[in-house]
Amino acid sequence: MSLIWVETDTQGVTTLTLARAEKHNALSADMMTELERAARALAQDRSVRVVVLAAEGKTFCAGGDLAWMREQFDMNAETRRIESRRIATVLGALYDLPQPLIGRVQGNALGGGVGLVSVCDVAIGVTGAKLGLTETRLGLLPANIGPYVLARMGATRASEVFMSARVFDAEEAVRLNLLSRSVAPDELDAAVAAEVLPYLSCAPGAVAEAKALMRDLAGRVTPAQVDMAIDALAARWQSDEAREGVGAFFEKRTPSWQ
Fold first, then answer.
1. CATH number at 4-185
2. How far apart are CA 213 and CA 219, in angstroms?
């Protein structure tokens, strides 16, 4: 059973949908593999003019699958680094799409879900949605998503929520430069369609080159930054705080630092 759906309409608009609603679209290893494969295929498909990143269910993405994350405690350092790289690789593949990437954020986005929002060129969320970089509550770091969060939000805005694990609403996410705007749930599809429409009258090659130029002028996320984040998270996994925080979550108890 596929964990994502890929559908392209007759105008070249592809909707890439997270389809693990029963798990709040948490990013498992298999789901990340499917997402990366789909993103790399779309990047090579010249018939695709715009990509919409969407999700089934009430939650856009609850972040990394914690069962998968918990398995990393029993891995050696190198295997843990390989696993840690999965989400960074997925985000990089989406970030590198030559087509415009429009985020349709119909519900909450936490941890890695914020990373997915951050790689979108435009992200529209519904009023009432909650977002947050919640990793430090678990004794972990918002590391692999960090380069993309900072590229999207800027250091000043990101510093308001990057370390505190504070959950914020869609309206504040607009102020923080994470969402482009927030709309009522029944207006979401129309808002996404309005973002897509102008691209259908533009030359696809020019759009792709304009996106690449914009990234070059603004400063791209670099492989060195991604590697730094992966190393930081791999080291943090070895800490007593990470073991305590993730353990407390699964045991439904308060961690020692609260």
1. 3.90.226.10
2. 10
